[in-house]
Amino acid sequence: MCGVWATIARGLKQLTGNVLCMIILFTDFGVYDPYVGQMHAVLAQRAPGIQVIDLCHHVPNFDIKAGAYLLAALVQELPHDAICVGVVDPGVGGRRDAIMVRADGRWFVGPDNGLFAIVMRRPRDVTSYRIDWRPAALSNSFHGRDLFAPVAAMLAQGTLPASTSEHLPMDTKHWPDDWDAVIYIDHYGNAITGLRASNIDIGTVLELGDTPVHYARTFSEVPPGQPFWYGNSFGLLEIAMNQDHAAQKLEISHGDRVRIRSAG
User: Fold this and answer.
1) What are phi and psi of 228, to 5 degrees?
2) Each residue's pLDDT tens digit, 142-182
3) Residues 69/115, Cβ–Cβ less than 8 Å
4) DSSP element (H, E) containing 169
5) Residue 28 contacts by C-beta under 8 Å, 6 or more apart in sequence?
6) What Rg do the C-alpha atoms of the chain give, in angstroms?
7) In this structure, CATH architecture of domain 3-165
8) CATH superfamily of 179-261
9) Is residue 180 classed exposed, middle or buried when 0-12, 13-18 and 19+ CB atoms within 10 A define those classes?
10) Is 232 helix (H, G, I), strand (E, B) or coil?
11) φ and ψ at 146, to 5 degrees?
């Protein structure tokens, strides 16, 4: 084993010895089908005692790019020793690689299709690896259960699966650092964009169709039913209404672009 792998392995064993690490699941599987449960079953069998957290299972179906921006925003709240299994994988069973990414102490395990692209841009220390290990039985259509969950379990227990270091992941240089599109609509009807709110002046006015949307700090600062935008709890620009469903009232759909203009 090369020196860098040995160092990583020692670090992993120290973490798991102190029961500090956890496995995070981030998918487009939804919660009504059996897929998330099957992944939990594999993790419980292969990494007993390791905590498994369901971060999000409602990434817009098949939307790798939306998932990439959402995951990059959510990762700041994850423990630095977390192992995130990310599966938005319409190309499962095809030619795309399987990868592990180590970014500022966290691991990300999943398909090499761009899902980890934004996560990989922002850390100080990041390396990616192609996963060469394969289970004895690998289905054509469920690598989340058969490949990515077992790899995460190995990492959680301080074991490094066979991998090729310094893998160059899929090219997503054409993706902007901030994306002016709606990437997620929550059950309240709030429309989350791929824009980091810290990069947007509070005097900015958003345009959605014929409706101008102004900034407010939080819901209680506007009357019920009035649209506004604000910086949400994980740092993204979000369009909302106080006690109402902004996506329905403003006819916002996942993927819609947001036009930005100055208040002046």
Assistant:
1) -160, 170
2) 999 999 999 999 999 999 999 988 777 878 989 999 999 99
3) no
4) none
5) 57, 58, 59, 60, 61, 62, 63, 67, 87, 88
6) 20
7) 3-Layer(aba) Sandwich (3.40)
8) Bacterial fluorinating enzyme like (2.40.30.90)
9) middle
10) coil
11) -90, -25
